[in-house]
Amino acid sequence: MSSVLQAECPCCGLLTAGDLNEIEKLFGFRNMKDGKKICQSYCRHCRSKHCRISSKRCKN
């Protein structure tokens, strides 16, 4: 069974999949206390604009 790495921003809907470099470029990763690295939920653009799900969708 193979797994597909993907990330989708809940604010603007940006979607990327499969390429760790592309996910790093568009979303970034965070280091958790237990040593795991996970993808950021929001893309870099929306995080820089402080977008939230409750606000209108931003345009990327």
- The structural class is alpha+beta
Largest sheet: spatial strand order:
1-2
Based on Cα principal axes, name the global outline.
globular
Determine the number of helices (DSSP H or I, runs of at least 4 residues). 2
- Give the strand tally: 4
Give the integer mean of the pLDDT values. 86
Unreliable stretches (pLDDT < 50, length at least 5) are none
What pattern of helices and strands is seen along the backbone?
EEHEEH
Major sheet, described briefly?
A: 2 strands, antiparallel
Taking all Cα atoms into account, the compactness measure Rg is 12 Å
Distance between the termini: 33 Å
Strand content: 15-25%
Amount of helix: 10-25%
Quick structural gist:
This protein is of the alpha+beta class.
Describe this structure in words.
It is a single chain. Helices cover 20% and strands 20% of the residues. The strands form two sheets. It has a two-stranded antiparallel sheet. The mean pLDDT is 86. The chain is built from two helices and four strands; from the N terminus they run E-E-H-E-E-H. A hairpin with a 5-residue loop joins strand 3 and strand 4. With 60 residues, the chain is α+β, with helices and mostly antiparallel strands. The chain is globular and about 35 Å long.
